[in-house]
Design brief:
Radius of gyration of chain A: 21 Å
Number of helices of chain B: 16
Structural class of chain A: alpha/beta
Distance between the termini of chain B: 19 Å
Strand order of the largest sheet of chain A: 8-9-10-3-11-12-14-13
Strand content of chain A: 25-35%
Largest sheet of chain B: 2 strands, antiparallel
Bound molecules: adenosine-5'-triphosphate, magnesium ion
Strand content of chain B: under 5%
CATH topology of the largest domain in chain B: MetI-like fold
CATH topology of the largest domain in chain A: Rossmann fold
Oligomer: heterodimer
CATH superfamily of the largest domain in chain A: P-loop containing nucleotide triphosphate hydrolases
Number of helices of chain A: 10
Order of helices and strands of chain B: HEHHEHHHHHHHHHHHHH
Number of strands of chain A: 14
Shape of chain A: globular
């Protein structure tokens, strides 16, 4: 199996007036073809920052400090000003022009808020035309529209609505349009950053279902960022749990849900309401995530961890192989 | 630009109401139109009957005919295409173009028959006046029902636009309908108060006030138009550049603009006009320099807001080209606010032009201009000749009011769309 994406020791920092905040800290990941990686964690733990840095699009004042992001490309990309040979490409070494060609056509990114992600002055069809012509100026408008209609129909949007403007669509439809825009260029990797957070549960379920189908149809590799662990249980092959920019645990979905290793993962799972067990007491994690500018010594989770030991306050736990076939960063394991 | 305009009049492209509702409105409009037309025609006929050129009535009739024909052409095209019981917008450019060409030819031919001394001039005035008048009628016919759904801002905008087009029409055909030459002195007594033969009185040089009021808008409109075009075509691009590029470019341009902005507008205009000397173009340039910073600032700050919006980011993520992001994502969302500035700028330019002429930096003496008459009239106000300054002053106010209403109305109509 080919590894579509390999991230090695990625560090991303935001320079603020108070100091530097490390939003992504030495994250390493490998993503095999056709796999879906779920990325979960509390708000502010750096999920979006990680997702964006994969396209080298960290918002100002963020900076990718070090690390490597290697994307596998299965065909040569040629355009007016250059080419990218197929094979492994290091994203961080690409120039702006090369990045532009990769964005959209190899990696697609879907944002959380569909209400504001479409240009109010352009019709849906124009969005599709413009995005296809940006990658291949020789495509005619009609041809581009045909493809747009095809993609929209597969997402359950009537083809004749291409002439409509964004404000004539509902939130769920707009998100479908965004997904369609993401997929129209047949990318290899799709990063969906909380794609259904702003939608109601029924639409959410529909869209996730459609995304799963499209994943098969378009042969996609996917990173699904979400707060909703229930969603991950259904869709992801592997789940990565992030805490303050670090990977706390990474394991195959089943193993992670059945046998969480890291105390933080366990706490997260405890805090998910379960309709089948209404008597279950909902746990919550005491305390708040630490300040990224002045992080605590040792394990970042130690001030909130029920199992905190002395060593947790002094030494940072390394990411080690766990018994369940995943990776975990916790002092509870690996010793003795 | 077309998008903005169609945004005003054709909001969604498709009209949601049924044909029946539409025809009801249509009848109301027809009624309004008739009353309006009768009033205007009566006034114009009264004036043009005594026109110096002798063909004033022909010009008025001709332009009305042209305007009515193009209006009917436009509405006929619309009413043919009614899919699903809806009135849809269809391009009416071609038939209108055909009609215009036809009229151009007939006007010229008519010119040779009716007014052999200057057939070309006659033809040109017929066409120009006809076009302005068609715009006027189209505004009532198309704009009224559409703008009415916006409530009072729509009414503001349409009444402003109507005032402006009416004044433009009057100015275009002025030469042909004035009872006396606006420049000839001693056509009547000196400072005659309004009386039947000189309805608005005469000036200190014995010129006919009515003729001067009718013809006096030309310079002002030209100055306003030129200066607005110059402002718009310089201010908007540099605002766009500055906002999009940011950094050093932004700082440098911003510094220049801020230092221009620091001067009081009229003082700066006076200084520049004094350096350049009198003349329409120089006056326009002086005014343009004063207003470029306003466009620059508004556009720049808008670009700053728009370029941070999620859909611009989404476009970058999808690998959109720089020029697409600038011209399809940022510019269209910035234009409405600069169009609003434009109409306010028009109003200000007119007042500044009047001010420049008032302090003697405007035009040569023999030109009929409201600003000039204000100056001259102001000096003789003390002997009780109020009519010399009152009527041109009224016209300046009307024109400025027209532009301000348009600007305010458009502001209200277009801004909520921006935030959507
Ligand atoms: N533009 C910025 N400037 C400074 N700090 C930032 C900026 N954007 C994000 N951060 C910081 O980086 C950290 C990670 O942010 P990020 O948006 O990646 O979190 P997230 O996991 O996606 O959160 P959420 O689930 O709420 O979307 C946060 O602590 C935040 O304070
Ligand atoms: Mg996020």
């Amino acid at each position: 199996m080919v590894d579509v994406l390999r991230i090695k020791d990625l560090i991303v920092e935001y320079t603020t007036q108070r100091g530097t905040a490390r939003a992504v800290d030495r994250v390493s990941l490998t993503l095999g073809e056709n796999r879906t990686l779920g990325l979960a964690g509390e708000s502010g733990c750096g999920k979006s920052t990680l997702g964006r840095s994969l396209m080298k699009l960290v918002p100002y004042p963020g900076k990718i400090v070090s690390g490597d992001i290697i994307l596998n490309i299965d065909h040569d990309i040629t355009w007016k000003k250059g080419t990218i040979k197929k094979g492994d490409v290091s994203i961080l070494e690409l120039n702006d022009d090369q990045l532009r060609m990769i964005r959209g056509s190899e990696i697609a990114y879907i944002f959380q808020d569909p209400m504001t992600s479409l240009n109010p002055m352009l019709s849906i069809g124009k969005h599709f035309i413009q995005i296809q012509q940006a990658h291949d100026p020789t495509i005619e408008d009609e041809q581009a529209l045909e493809r747009a209609k095809e993609v929209l129909e597969s997402l359950g949007i009537l083809a004749e609505r291409v002439d409509d403007y964004p404000h004539q669509f509902s939130g769920g439809m707009r998100q479908r349009v965004m997904i369609g825009l993401g997929l129209v260029l047949r990318p290899r990797l799709l990063i969906a950053d909380e794609p259904t957070t702003s939608l109601d549960v029924i639409v959410e379920a529909q869209i996730l279902e459609e995304m799963a189908e499209l994943k098969e149809k378009f042969n996609l590799t996917m990173i699904l960022i979400t707060h909703n662990l229930g969603v991950l249980a259904q869709t992801a092959d592997d789940v990565a749990i992030m805490y303050t920019g670090r990977l706390a645990e990474l394991a195959p979905t089943e193993a992670l849900f059945e046998n969480p290793q890291h105390p933080y993962t366990e706490a997260l799972l405890q805090s998910v309401p379960d309709v089948t067990k209404p008597d279950k007491k909902l746990a919550w994690i005491p305390g708040a995530p630490p300040d990224l500018v002045n992080p605590p010594d040792g394990c970042m989770f130690n001030p909130r961890c029920p199992f905190a030991m002395d060593i947790c306050k002094q030494e940072e736990p390394p990411l080690i192989q766990s018994d369940t076939g995943g990776l975990v960063a916790c002092h509870l394991y690996g010793r003795s | 630009m077309t998008q903005v305009l169609s945004g005003i009049f054709f909001h969604l492209g498709k009209r949601k109401e049924s044909t029946k509702d539409y025809s009801k409105k249509w009848w109301a409009v027809i009624l309004m139109l008739t009353v309006l037309v009768v009033l205007i025609v009566a006034a114009l006929i009264a004036i043009s009957l005594t026109a110096r050129s002798g063909v004033g009535i022909h010009v008025v009739a001709g332009t009305f005919l042209l305007a009515m024909t193009s209006l009917l052409t436009a509405s006929y095209i619309k009413r043919i295409n009614l899919p699903n019981n809806q009135v849809t917008r269809h391009p009416v450019y071609l038939p209108v173009a055909i009609v215009s060409v036809f009229f151009a030819i007939t006007s010229l031919v008519l010119g040779y028959i009716i007014y052999p001394t200057d057939p070309i001039g006659f033809g040109i005035v017929m066409i120009a006046g006809g076009i302005v008048l068609s715009v006027f009628f189209l505004l009532v016919y198309e704009g009224y029902p559409r703008l009415k759904i916006h409530g009072s801002p729509g009414i503001l905008a349409i009444s402003g636009l109507l005032m402006v087009t009416a004044i433009i029409y009057m100015t275009v055909i002025a030469d042909w309908i004035v009872p006396y030459s606006p420049f000839h002195i001693n056509v009547g007594g000196i400072r005659e108060p309004p009386n039947p033969s000189f309805p608005l009185g005469t000036t200190s040089l014995g010129q006919d006030m009515l003729s001067r009021v009718i013809a006096g808008g030309a310079t002002m409109l030209q100055v306003a138009a030129i200066s607005v075009v110059v402002c718009f075509s310089i201010g908007v691009p540099i605002g766009l550049l500055s906002g999009y590029r940011g950094g050093l470019v932004d700082k440098t341009i911003g510094l220049v603009m801020d230092s221009l902005f620091a001067f009081p507008g009229l003082v700066l205009a006076i200084a520049i006009a004094a350096i350049l000397g009198p003349g329409i173009l120089n006056m326009a340039i002086a005014i343009a320099v004063v207003y470029i910073p306003s466009y620059f600032r508004v556009v720049r700050s808008q670009v700053f807001t728009v370029r941070e919006l999620p859909y611009v980011e989404a476009a970058i993520v999808m690998g959109a080209r720089d020029r697409d992001i600038l011209f399809r994502y940022i510019l269209p969302n910035v234009l409405p606010s600069s169009v609003v500035i434009m109409s306010i700028n028009f109003a200000d330019a007119i007042l500044t032009a009047a001010g420049l002429t008032f302090v003697g930096l405007g035009l040569s003496v023999d030109i009929a201009d409201w600003g000039w008459d204000l100056t001259l009239g102001f000096q003789v106000l003390i002997v009780g000749a109020w009519w010399i300054s009152a009527f041109p002053g009224l016209m300046v106010i009307l024109l400025a009011l027209g532009f301000t209403l348009t600007g305010e109305g458009l502001n209200e109509i277009l801004t909520p769309k921006l935030r959507e």
